[in-house]
């Protein structure tokens, strides 16, 4: 074993122990010594470099290192992001969850809207903006960066939710050449994964694979996930490097469906009868190829990203959704630093073109098999974007950030006139969206470990095809929705002072045309989407920690208290029907408290998750989920260099609660089906071991 390998592993362990104490590590306080980090390369900078660059943003951006979730059963995005303030990620079953940042897609009860998911800075979303999470394997993630709202402008993103970038390791940044992991737990859960990497002169190659199976806590929720990721880099010269990324993903997930509130709390393990009779499921086969080529110039550098994603979906629900789509794109970007009138200026200028086509067919659901065809259609999306962001250091401790994005998004829908719903021949409909999104911000850094910031950004959310193509019991058609537009103001501070660390942001978004979803029939999954009038999303995002005790039982140990609090206050403003009611979908308060005892060879962390008030299920604010408190326990132990074991116990009191829900207009209306609640999992225990060599 080489000395650098030992150094990297030792640094990783030292980082893990204090990080476990804080549910969200403070962005300005990298706990890893830079000299122990792998140096990275042109196309994949080291984790320390990426953290350092992110910290200079005058915004509530947050960096999560893989060590923070390494000794948990990290299977979903929630397991990676649960400790991040401002991010709401709640599981339904398998890897299906709701991801919302600052109310993005607040009422979207499935998949993804309003947040761009990136892998190594390259989009994972489809061309219309929709997306899934199955391409993100937590065991193949080295770090994650969260950019709320317009703070993701340097990637070309300017939606209300912003972007989350999942950074995968390369052979030059990997912790070790070989990593093996085995896990098992309740509900018939097991997972095996492995990673191997090598450097051959100017070439480097890394591959990782995971296979996960679970019988599921609920009836009819068995799942099987097979995920493969790889990248190959070639250093053409000291100033030019190219890297290819490849991935393949197979998902087989049974769907147990939603329940009434009474059933969710009293008979939570049952499946919805319609989910059983229709053998409802979500099966996906997807492949992804991407490339980044980086050229370092005398002034700055050029990065050119390109990608191709193929996705096949077989999804028996109210009908059988059968889709086959292709997404492709290219994104050149120049970044550099130079003097402007004697002041240091850092500039990013870029463009993105990405497009896609999706053959979208539907059939009657014959117990999970195709019946008679009801729809034959093609969905096409094209996006043209130009963006720039400049950071000007007016004084050593003051920076002014300005930026803007110019975009044009085209959505075309072709009904081929085959099936039960249309016999008139092919019909093509569409809508084009144009916009200009500016931003301005300021950063004050009086000391290297303390920052304060303020900024204002404009965001635009273009409807995806789940919004634009809406179904009733007898018809599916194109509905030309408006884009959702918002101005967001945020102020905040982050830093460390002796034993204390903090990350605090207050934000307010004034929104026009917010895209809100209503379940028409929860049993069938039929939904309608409408543009609201004026709405306001505002809240507080807080993460803090304090070392209560140091050198308690041995030199170098500590007891640390960590607290995460997200407050969501999302409301209508003078709506004709709902007045100033709260917008349904998310609970107003989400808190997570941890108390960690850590020492060089391991840690133990009791965790408390508290939702004081459940989310409203209807916009009339007459039906809501329950409040709850959950207790968990996380334990990690290093047995030998590179060998560790962990225990992750969840919901120790077997609390019955609602983890997520769909939204309806008014639960009081006679005949309204309120089967919209998804019960959270009961008591569970997962154990695993990890070997790095």
TrEMBL record:
Family classification: Belongs to the TonB-dependent receptor family.
Membrane-protein topology: Multi-pass membrane protein
Main location, first listed in the record: membrane
GO molecular function, one term: siderophore uptake transmembrane transporter activity
TonB-dependent receptor plug domain sequence ranges: 55-163
A Pfam cross-reference name: Plug
Gene3D superfamilies for this protein: TonB-dependent receptor, beta-barrel domain (2.40.170.20), TonB-dependent receptor, plug domain (2.170.130.10)
A biological process from GO: siderophore transmembrane transport
Record protein name field: TonB-dependent receptor
UniProt signal peptide: 1-23
Keywords: Cell outer membrane, Membrane, Receptor, Signal, TonB box, Transmembrane, Transmembrane beta strand, Transport
Location(s) in or outside the cell: Cell outer membrane
InterPro entries named among the record's database cross-references: Beta-barrel_TonB, Beta-barrel_TonB_sf, Plug_dom, Plug_dom_sf, TonB-dep_rcpt-like
Keyword Zinc: no
Recorded GO CC terms: cell outer membrane
Record-annotated TonB-dependent receptor-like beta-barrel domain positions: 318-652
Keyword rRNA processing (UniProt): no
Top-level taxonomic group: Bacteria
């Amino acid at each position: 074993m080489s000395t650098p390998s030992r150094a990297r592993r030792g640094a990783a362990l030292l980082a893990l122990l204090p990080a476990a104490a804080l549910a969200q590590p403070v962005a300005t306080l990298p706990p890893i010594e830079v000299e122990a980090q792998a140096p990275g390369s042109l196309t994949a900078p080291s984790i320390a470099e990426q953290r350092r660059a992110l910290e200079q943003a005058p915004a509530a951006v947050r960096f999560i290192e893989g060590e923070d979730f390494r000794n948990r059963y990290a299977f979903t995005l929630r397991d990676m992001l649960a400790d991040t303030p401002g991010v709401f990620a709640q599981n339904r079953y398998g890897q299906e969850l709701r991801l919302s940042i600052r109310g993005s897609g607040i009422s979207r009860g499935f998949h993804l809207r309003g947040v761009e998911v990136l892998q190594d800075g390259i989009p994972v979303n489809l061309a219309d903006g929709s997306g899934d999470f199955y391409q993100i394997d937590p065991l193949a993630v080295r770090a994650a960066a969260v950019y709320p709202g317009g703070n993701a402008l340097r990637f070309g993103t300017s939606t209300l939710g912003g972007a989350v970038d999942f950074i995968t390791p390369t052979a030059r940044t990997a912790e070790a050449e070989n990593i093996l992991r085995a896990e098992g737990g309740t509900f018939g859960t097991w997972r095996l994964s492995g990673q191997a990497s090598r450097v051959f002169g100017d070439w480097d190659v890394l591959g990782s694979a995971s296979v996960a199976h679970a019988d599921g806590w609920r009836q009819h929720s068995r799942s099987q996930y097979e995920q493969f990721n790889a990248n190959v880099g070639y250093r053409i010269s000291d100033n030019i490097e190219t890297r290819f990324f490849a991935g393949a993903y197979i998902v087989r997930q049974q769907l147990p469906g939603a329940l009434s509130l009474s059933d969710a709390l009293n008979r939570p393990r049952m499946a919805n009868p319609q989910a059983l009779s229709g053998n409802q499921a979500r099966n996906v086969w997807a492949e992804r190829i991407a490339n980044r080529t980086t050229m370092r110039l005398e002034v700055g550098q050029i990065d050119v990203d390109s990608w191709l994603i193929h996705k096949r979906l077989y999804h028996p629900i109210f009908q059988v959704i059968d889709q086959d789509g292709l997404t492709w794109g290219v994104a050149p970007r120049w970044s550099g630093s130079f003097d402007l009138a004697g002041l240091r200026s850092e500039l990013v200028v870029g463009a993105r073109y990405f497009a896609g086509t999706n053959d979208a067919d539907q059939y009657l659901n014959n117990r999970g098999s195709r019946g008679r065809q009801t729809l034959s259609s093609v969905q096409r999306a094209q996006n043209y974007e130009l963006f720039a962001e400049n950071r000007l250091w007016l004084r050593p401790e003051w920076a002014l950030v300005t930026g803007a994005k110019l975009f044009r998004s085209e959505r075309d829908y072709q009904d081929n006139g085959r099936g039960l719903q249309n016999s008139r021949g092919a019909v093509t409909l569409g809508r084009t969206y144009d916009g200009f999104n500016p931003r301005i911000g300021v950063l004050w850094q009086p000391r290297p470990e303390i920052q304060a910031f303020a900024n204002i950004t404009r965001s635009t959310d273009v409807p995806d095809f789940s919004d634009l193509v809406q179904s009733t019991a007898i018809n599916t058609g194109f509905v030309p929705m408006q884009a959702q537009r918002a101005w967001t103001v945020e102020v905040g501070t982050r830093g460390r002072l002796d034993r204390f660390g903090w990350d605090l942001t207050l934000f307010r978004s004034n929104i026009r045309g917010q895209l809100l979803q209503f379940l028409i029939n929860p049993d069938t999954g039929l939904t309608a989407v409408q543009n609201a009038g004026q709405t306001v999303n505002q809240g507080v995002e807080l993460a803090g920690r304090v070392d209560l005790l140091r050198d308690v039982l041995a030199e170098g140990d500590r007891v640390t208290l960590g607290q995460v609090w997200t407050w969501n206050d999302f409301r209508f403003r003078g709506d004709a029907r709902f007045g100033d009611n709260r917008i349904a979908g998310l609970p107003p308060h989400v808190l997570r408290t941890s108390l960690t005892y850590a020492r060089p060879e391991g840690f133990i962390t009791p965790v408390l998750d508290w939702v004081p008030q459940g989310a409203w299920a209807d916009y009339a604010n007459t039906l809501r989920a329950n409040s709850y408190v959950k207790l968990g326990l996380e334990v990690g132990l290093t047995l030998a260099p590179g060998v560790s074991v962990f225990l992750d116990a969840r919901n120790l009191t077997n609390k019955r609660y609602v983890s997520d829900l769909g939204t309806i207009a008014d639960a009081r209306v006679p005949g309204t089906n309120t089967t919209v609640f998804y019960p959270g999992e009961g008591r569970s225990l997962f154990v695993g071991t990890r070997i790095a060599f």
